[in-house]
Amino acid sequence: MATSASQRVEELRARIAYHDQKYYVQDSPELSDADYDALVGELRAIEEEHPDLLTPDSPTQRVGGIPSLLFTPVTHRLAMMSLDNAFDLDELRAWVDRIAKIDPAVLGAEFACELKIDGIAMSLTYESGAFVRAATRGDGFTGEDVTSNVASVSTVPKRLRWPDRNGPTPAVMEVRGEVYMPVSSFEELNRRQLEAGERAFANPRNSAAGSLRQKDARITASRDLSFWAYQIGAREGGPDLHSHSEALEFLRGCGLPVNPEVRTVKGVDEVFAFCSHWQEHRHDLDYEIDGVVVKVDDLTLQQRLGATSRAPRWAVAFKFPPEERNTKLTHIMVSIGRTGRATPFAMLEPVFVGGSTVAVATLHNADQVRLKDVRPGDTVVVRKAGDVIPEVVGPVLSARPRGLRAWKFPTKCPSCGGELLRLPGESDTFCTNLECPAQRVQRIVHFASRAAMDIEGLGEKRVVQLVGAGLLTDPGDIYGLDRARLVELERMGELSVDNVLRSIEQSKDRPLSRLLVGLGIRHLGPTGCRALAREYRSLEQIMAGSVEELAAVEGIGPVIADSVVEFLSSPGNQSVVERLRSFGVNMTEPGALAVAGGAAQTTTPGVQLAQTLTGRSVVVTGTLDGYSREEAEEAIMAHGGRSPGSVSSRTWAVVVGFEPGMAKVRKAEELQVPVVDGSRFDELLLTGELPGD
Question: How many helices (H) and strands (E) does the chain have?
């Protein structure tokens, strides 16, 4: 009987794998959903009856594994590097000219052009053909182990096909690719969310990223994620491959899904034609793309071209430009933030722009509304570039209805009814009631946010519920939440409560700099928080400092110092701090963060990178490819420099990225401070010298 069961199990697994390939990869299903489910049901029943036949790569193991409580770090065998960018034909030509100076063979080479999938970069490891691990890109050197979640993605084969012509099975083969959510799946997910009374997700990429970070793989499985393979990483054994296009064909032969819209072309003009076509037709696909990746096809030539500290020279990402769309502005409303700042925002007729459906866009402040002269009822231009917050560019005046009245900023807070006051010399308007419910909620949400104490499960919706139930009034209450009272609340089952309480407990170990961010001291941003934490090392020492002493810290100054002292001397804030201390929240700053080659790595106290920027002040403005704003500032400080938020006569250099603050650029020119292009940032870090032309 066991032999018969074993044979049937193998037959069922083979049939299911075949139909997975037909359905998910070839898009030509031969079996109805009911018949497919019957096959899986039969397999599950046999495995339950004969547990010795159950294997980790069985189709039944895609869902229902033990939920992960946390994601462990995975060190990549080969770094998952970033890509340099090009935005037009001239920049494509410049890239080719640049690498042709290294090896003239580039001028006669072929280029592989692939769609740049707007998903989550993923590393899959196969050992002797069996799927054993999945890891996110992370910082390029270390990612997160998401094996159980990726195992639920149907398009990821659990065992590779290995035709004889491929030679011996590699002992290890790493497959690089992108996990994404199809647009149709995203729309279906949002439909379910709305029917359940939950908030819709912002866009397919964020939905995919959130799905991968679920601690219960069954939730990930329900999100209908998919995968495209685009490269071979580390490999031990296997056939000799001579080109990138040959490697993609090899991956297809192994049963991995490879995007069909890959072309090998010759010359920059053909590359640009491919990019232009997909820029125009990007929304014809059932998945989001944000550009085209162009690679030198010849693998030997790739090796000769090599890489910089953060990106291969043989590849470039052609990025599509930001998108703008017209839609109707239905209402202008005002939100109240944690400091009481009243921010106007536009409610829009939903419009698909920049890769997602936008229904809300920022209007910044009262002056911006007045300057842009946008009015409820206007047709407006909405702009969104990637993950940037959507904004209203301005009205389409030719479409404005007659008699449309200009919008006036309200005088009363929409949350508490208190007075809204615009402070002298400031562009912002504030609610003056410190007990305003909206402020209370936002202060707690900010404290729990990822940039601060990173408490999973305490988003805005949950905080509103807890504040409404009388369980939270300020951040100090978070650590005294009672499990028995939480499980009594609606939509707070025992598992959810345990997860929240576990995350709260873990947050007690965050460094002082993150705690300072969470406290939300006015004028004190993340850079200033790190500067104070590094200088004083404990909150007790900061609280003992005078305005003059704090102002002497690089990047702080008298305005921020005065705000810090005022905040920490307030009896109410002191009470919050003491309660946090009593609950065991860490109030010291341990080691520092070092950033090398675009990758953030935690260092042991006392261990430093080469101090190439010792005593130098470097200001960063705009977006740097491969770095968040915080990572760029950390990189400068890790190399011994300082990274203040403003340009002064003491500034050694200003690094200018994409969409910089022009006031800082003009100030640098006025003070004759050297300006460094953002693409040369790594060079500046490594050498400590101003890059030449």
Answer: 24, 23
